[in-house]
Each structure stands twice: as structure tokens, then as C-alpha cells.
Amino acid sequence: MKLEGEQKLLRIFVLEQDKWKGKPLYEAIVDEARALGLAGATTIRGCLGFGRGHHIHTAKLLELSYDLPVLIEIVDTEEKVKTLIPKLDEMVQEGLVTLEAVHVLMYRANGARRTV
Length: 116
Hints:
By secondary structure, the protein is α+β, with helices and mostly antiparallel strands. The chain has one domain (5-104): 2-Layer Sandwich (Alpha-Beta Plaits), CATH 3.30.70.120. It is built from two helices and eight strands. The chain has helices at 25-35, 78-91; strands at residues 5-15, 19-20, 23-24, 42-45, 48-49, 57-58, 69-76, 96-104. The longest helix is centred in the C-terminal third of the chain and has 14 residues, at 78-91.
């Protein structure tokens, strides 16, 4: 698979304790992206954040560290990324989903090396 040049970056901001059908939401989203054949997905656990309600989620305070922010990032073609959006509309009850243009400089899958 060649994924270079102008592509789309889908970012999904949720909380660690959010669920979808009994499974962590971030895990369910990654599973759905994989099932749809997207190039890849990465989840990043935040150490501090707040959302619309302005409630601080932080790893600093033990009693608040159980529900930290989680960011899921997916880069692929616009066509493939847009196949996930209707499913996200069902799955994400609270959170933020953004879509932006990115320029992919390099994408190496299966150990492939590009010769210059």
C-alpha cells in the first residue's frame, strides 16, 4: 500500500472509561478501523485534559487518574477515513472528532523501503 502525499488525519478525543458495547471505546474504534481496512490507528493516553464541562482529568491526582483523556489518530485516504465516520457517529456519545489535511512524507508497511 502506498500512502504518500495529501491524505487525511482523523483525530478522536474520548475518555479512558468511555465504553462501546462493554468494551473500552478507544479499543472498539481501533477494532472498527482495522475491520474497515484503514492503514493504521494509534491511541495516545493523555496525562492532563479537560473538555466541554471543564472538568480536569489528570494523572497527578490519584482519585482523578482513572478517567484520563485518550486520543485516537488515524491517517489514510479521505475515501477510507470517511467510511469510519458514520460508525463514529454511533459510537462516540461524548468527545470530539476532527478531520484535517496532512501531507504524508513516508509510510512504510511490511518492511518496505523506498529507494531514492
